[in-house]
Design a protein that fits this description.
The complex is a heterodimer of chains A (about 290) and B (about 290). By secondary structure, chain A is of the alpha/beta class. Chain A has a domain of about 55 residues. A 6-stranded mixed β-sheet of chain A has the order 5-6-7-3-8-9, with helices on both faces. A 3-stranded antiparallel β-sheet of chain A has the order 2-1-4, with helices on both faces. In chain A, α9 packs across α10. Chain B has a domain of about 200 residues: ABC transporter involved in vitamin B12 uptake, BtuC. Chain B has 15 helices and no strands. Chain B starts with a helix and ends in a 9-residue tail after the last helix. Classes of the chains: A alpha/beta (about 290), B mainly alpha (about 290). At the A-B interface, β5, α3 and α4 of A face α9, α10 and α13 of B.
Chain lengths: ~290, ~290
Amino acid sequence: MDKQTRPHDRLAQVCDQGVLVTAEGVTMSYAGRQILSGVDLAVNRGEIVTLIGLNGSGKSTLARILLGLLQPEAGRIWRAGGLRHGYVPQSLSIDPAMPMTVRRFLTLGGKVADEMLITTLAEVGLSGRLAAQVAELSGGELHRAMLARALLRRPDFLVLDEPMSGVDVSGQGQLYQLIATIRDTYNCGVLLISHDLHVVMAATDRVVCLNHHICCTGRPDAIVGDPEFRALFGAAVADQLALYRHHHDHAHETDGGVVPLNGGHGGPERGLADEHGHDHQHGAHGHD
Amino acid sequence: MGTTISTALMVMIEDFMLRALLGGLGVAGVAGPLGCFVIWRHMVYFGAALAHSALLGVALGLATGLPADLGIAVLCLLMALGFLALDQSRLVASDTLLGILAHASLALGLLALALLEGLRVDLMSYLFGDILALNLTDLVVIYGLMTVVMGILLAYWRPLLSATVDEDLARVEGLNTRWLKLLFTILMAAVIAIGMKVVGILMVISLLIIPAATARRLASSPEGMALAAALSGGLSVVLGLLGSYWWDLPSGAAIVAAAAALFLLSLGLPVRAVREIFNSSKSGTALR
């Protein structure tokens, strides 16, 4: 609870360090049911953060709050000045009775030069589909089209809600590669919402495990040892994932601790992002 | 054949028929494009409920001495705002709420008219329309409102379209979708107020949605569908008026029946050939 009384200058301090969005003490409920309580989260430029959690754990709600689509009941959201959002929702609410080509869909947010349309479509692997009707796209294609629309905005902060749903296993690997490439080319921060743990381990810089509050957060290979993570997803799953080795440009200490990407230990701002830790007491609360 | 056409022309040239035709075409011209949005946004029952409240608007106009059109438009708008406010509370499903509002307001309208003693109101003409009784003032009102509604629709075409395709994406891209929804509701109230002169309170929504539904199969762009809806609505007016003249049928019902017949016909049309007509200029050359 002391989080809410944290001095404000800390926010300003954090925001200088390439932080794109920060949530502090975000609390939200629907119809008397607590969806989020006291959630702190920051997403940095050039970082892929994955939000995992069971269905109904508040992942999408948190993402929508970060995007400004929902107002939290309590807590603060800070966004870097001039921040451009890109959003790829789980599904599109377009009516099948709306005749609309992919080209038209991509330019709904504003006029775009043809060249840019073509290169962006190629980037997401939808080349040659500009004239296709949106209603006739497959689930995977529709996701790519939505991703292209988000990329056309040159986003600083890209939110992908369950991008792997409706994509087969071989496609998932490609899509993951694509997200990593996008992070590099656009130098944006990416917030990924996923319940697919294998996918999470492959190309995520930081995992945030949500169950109405933040259970644990850290690098993928560190988080699988966390008692709360094991409690949520089962020890068997966690052990299986622990075997997974991913390659990144950071080192692991022998005791399993993590050496941050840039700079040493101890900086409060990087620490917020990189170290795996809990900001709450275990045992003091129960899961519902 | 030649004599049939010249007879049809003669019929149309008769004064009251000419006014009916002009009024009907004016309403159809704006109801078609607006009706496309009603379909895309799934607001058919919303529109029907607004129309049902129009009778209360008539009573309001009679009681206050204001023009009936204004009374109707004001009441439709109040109904719309009332619905939006009640719907927020999520006490019952939206369609239940619309059903309650539609029939409660129709009943209240009938009661209010009965209570306004000394006034003889032609209830049938309000409920089922009286296009043959249109006078010059009506035409001025219809074309004046139509110009305003079309102007607003064109000015806000892209934002309205974007908010209709997906509200979240539109908001992330910076559109004020709440304002757009209100604006659209105002346009609907206006078109319902003029449309009920033609086909009456009980059928006015059909003037919006049947031509739009007919247009769906013919179009591959939103603009193409709007244009086809306007044309199909116009054709329904012409056919309905001719039918009502020749066979002495109630004109409003004849127009709606003609629109429904065109819809059935559209289901059997060779789609590709017709699409060329509506979209050759609109969608531009498709890049492959």
